Here is the input.
Amino acid sequence: MSEYDGGELDPGYTGDEQPDTYGGGGAEYGQYETGQEHQSLDQLHQVNASESDYDNQFNVYEQDHAAAESTSFDQGRHVEFTGADGSHYEESNFTSYDHSAVETDHVFAAEGSESSHQAEVSTLDALQERIESAFTSVTEAVTGGGSGGGPGEVEGGNSGLGVASN
Here is the structure.
């Protein structure tokens, strides 16, 4: 035997043939794969917005002025005379003065401010992600001899079954 240890060698190994660590004669390998993938991505983005403003400023200034003045000035003289010796004499002097004044002032001032604000916002964000994945990988070794199994049968311990998912 050589210095190389090939693992589980058949006891009948003579060095002329390839070592078979699986036992038995030539083997055939079959590879079967099945897979299923589903991917979905939904995205929705919506924005509604509204804004309203109202502003009113007012200033009122009112001023009224009224004035009235009245002046009356009268002077008079009255003379009366009667003669032919029933003498009679009469004299009258008069002065009349009237003054009246009326004054009116009216001031009105008003100042005001009015304001209104209204805002509405509506936002909708939706993200839906759905990924489904299933995958099966099978490696099968089919041998033609060995432990009594017929051609096409899988020998025990000589097949590997692996499951991998993405």
